[in-house]
Amino acid sequence: MPSWELKNRLARSSRPGYSGEKGQLVPKSEVDAWIKEAKGLGIASIICLLGEGQLNLYDDLPGGLVSYYRFFGFAVEHVPALDHQDPPLSDYDLERIWSAYQSLEKPVLIHCSAGIDRTGKAVQHIQNRLNP
Known about the structure:
Largest sheet: 5 strands, mixed
CATH architecture: Alpha-Beta Complex
Helix content: 25-40%
Strand order of the largest sheet: 1-2-5-3-4
CATH class: Alpha Beta
Number of helices: 5
Order of helices and strands: EEHEHHEHEH
Oligomer: single chain
Distance between the termini: 29 Å
């Protein structure tokens, strides 16, 4: 479920269909419901932080998750980052996220898998850059 970090500018969420790290394919209906919710909030762009192993959970979608987002009209930047790393994102990843945030139409939604570690670090980095 998306939530606002900066009203009408930046939101965060878990990935579509997240229900723990079970490694099961996510049904299209769950992705469609997530997209409907994001559209309802007015989200224009998505920064996806899922690594390739997590993107495989969407193999049933035509073209995969990132292409599916684009099909529904979102501008998308994919910054693949492995889960369970310390730190969650490298400095290089953070700069790619900041660059994507600056260039994407607002509001932007950022998600990893659970929407906690990688997403939290990305949101914190953006907020720090906006409010030095």
